[in-house]
Design a protein that fits this description.
The protein has about 300 residues and is of the alpha+beta class. It is built from 13 helices and ten strands. It is globular, with a radius of gyration of 18 Å. Bound molecules: glutamine.
Amino acid sequence: MADISALVAEIAARMAALPDRGRVADYIPELAKVSGDHFGLAVITADGTEHVAGDADTCFSIQSVSKVFALVEALGSCGDRVWDRVGREPSGSAFNSIIQLELEQGRPRNPFINAGALAVTDLIANRTDSDGSGIGDILRLVRRLAGDDSIAVDGAVAYSEAATGFRNAALANYMRAFGTITGPVATTLDVYFHQCAIAMSCRQLARAGRFLAHGGIDPASGQAIVPPERARRINALMLTCGHYDASGEFAFRVGLPAKSGVGGGILAIAPGRASIAVWSPGLSPQGNSLRGTQALEDLAHAMGWSVFNPDV
Ligand code: GLN
């Protein structure tokens, strides 16, 4: 068994020396203020040991990683009704693409592109039996999963995205015309912008993802978060759709279910082995963390953690 702590430290050192860091997202003005020099990595193995390096305890905007938690919340309250409005196919197009929606009658390909996430969030934001605000429900789930009540929404990021989120507004309005979104568009967008603006550290994110590595059960609390079949399915979606039009490339290089966000974070799951969170704000052209992907490739390779390995 490799010494994971030494490996995690070694990868962080290697990433610090990497000259190509990609481009920090600037279409959300508040995200453009974040330094591209940050790098954090947290690996939590099945026994609960936490191996961290770099800025693993610095909070960042989880952005589209929140789409995993919103999906868990929506499946929990609406069950398979989620699949009436969103598909389960890789899109092969950009995360904020509009054109595919018109060609496919307003039904988003999957819950991890923006259109699909908006359709999922609409279910949470506008459900009739909700006893709290939609963002409150998502935040409660994330806090419970991470075992940390200090996790909060970064109000400046939420405001910044709401002020500039014209594409998301277009997607949501367009889906409202098809009935894919049924509630007030403004409410759905408000919850979506706030869920994307949840701020977490790598350590918190890795803790929050542990249930996906362990058949739906959070080993920290022993609680069943989702049934085993649902955990398997969410992992399948993360593997096939979690990196948008770079999902195939990510599976090829890393071989793990994972979800990225334009804040530069990635949550990756090594089923049965570990929950991993990495953060480096510079992005690839497809909007996925450049050094984060490299770090995961190095880690998965060194540990033999690809889901396609025969011994996993
Ligand atoms: N909040 C971002 C957006 O809607 C999330 C996109 C992402 O992280 N890929 O554009």
